[in-house]
Amino acid sequence: MKIAIVSGKDEGPTKLNAFDNALSDAGIGDVNLIKVSSMLAGNAEIVELPDLKAGSMVNCVLSEITSNVFGEEITAAVAVAIGEELGCVVETTGRDKNPDEVIIEAKEMVKYMMDKRGVEIKELIVESSTTTVRETASAVASVVYITDEIISK
């Protein structure tokens, strides 16, 4: 199993536009995202996000937060823990919360999930995106499941 871990942030005239712009900033704005739960196959391989076919149906775990509160700091984060038997992904967000606290929260949650399953963590990665709202902003972080069918040739 191959995965890419991405993040993005941007502003827009509406919440929907800000969210769409943040997805584009992360490199996943031109595909259809299918949210899945938080499990990975064992020894998942982390790769750079390839060019994706526009309109593809793409499985992902997605953390997203959008706000139109001027000056609010928003953070989206995903944490990935990979073991030999399986892996887990968590997503979390924060509003006016120290981004380091959001990252710590994500790490603690994914460590708990792996511990509960009795799986030793071989690799732990956190990806986050933080922005301060000027008008309407969105931040996203995502684990994208990569298959040959979605890669632009």
Mean pLDDT score: 97
Q: Spans of 5+ residues with little confidence (pLDDT < 50)?
A: none
Largest sheet data: 5 strands, mixed
Strand fraction equals over 45%
E-strand count: 9
Radius of gyration: 15 Å
The sequence of SSEs as H and E is EHEEEEEEHEE
Please provide a written account of the structure:
The chain has two helices and nine strands. It is of the alpha+beta class. The longest helix has 18 residues. It is flat. The model has no long low-confidence stretch (mean pLDDT 97).
Secondary structure: elements and pairs:
Blueprint (H helix, E strand, L loop, with lengths): L1 E10 L3 H12 L5 E4 L3 E3 L3 E2 L10 E11 L5 E10 L3 E10 L3 H18 L6 E10 L4 E10 L7
Parallel strand pairs: 1-4, 2-5
Antiparallel strand pairs: 1-9, 3-7, 5-9, 6-7, 6-8
Describe this structure in a few short sentences:
The protein is α+β, with helices and mostly antiparallel strands and 153 residues long.
Short descriptors:
2 helices, 9 strands, four-stranded antiparallel β-sheet
